[in-house]
Input
Amino acid sequence: DGGITQSPKYLFRKEGQNVTLSCEQNLNHDAMYWYRQDPGQGLRLIYYSQIVNDFQKGDIAEGYSVSREKKESFPLTVTSAQKNPTAFYLCASTPPTGRPTGYTFGSGTRLTVV
Amino acid sequence: GEDVEQSLFLSVREGDSSVINCTYTDSSSTYLYWYKQEPGAGLQLLTYIFSNMDMKQDQRLTVLLNKKDKHLSLRIADTQTGDSAIYFCAESLMDSSYKLIFGSGTRLLVRP
Output
């Protein structure tokens, strides 16, 4: 079955560490997105990529980095510059036309700073 | 800029109808969406409506769109305890990015 796989489901980070969240899709979707979810604040866009080897900053890109070397993969690195990284991170993808089917989401990664 | 607003919480009794409301600001939005999120999970697309439609019905779900007031609602008929979740409204931007702008979500609690 096609879908989006995020791993790990839970991740713990020490102060000053970089960590990388994985997002893989086998839907043949061109566009991929990373969102951050905090309680009561909905989803905020971190980065998105519409094509391999290209990506754009979203609304809260500071302290994060991404790469898009393959169509199927869009990993997110949370760097030590991100001062408040504890959150639920969601990856999504959409087919070339975008509309009307909207996004397909992964099941999320919960990151906690310890 | 674009903004999507929802009320934060709704509580209903099992068997009643639930109505979740949403307002958006981008009048050029072409599609509007409703997503459901269960605890610890990703978002699941429930339904969507094209901006030239007023209403869309899909089994227990009815979406109403008032484009003049930029108001979207989701009605769930015969609400069940399994409907307890967070519901997100989202609008698609009228550009090539295919970005969706999400509301902050409405937590629906269904009481037995």
Summary: The mean pLDDT of chain A is 91.
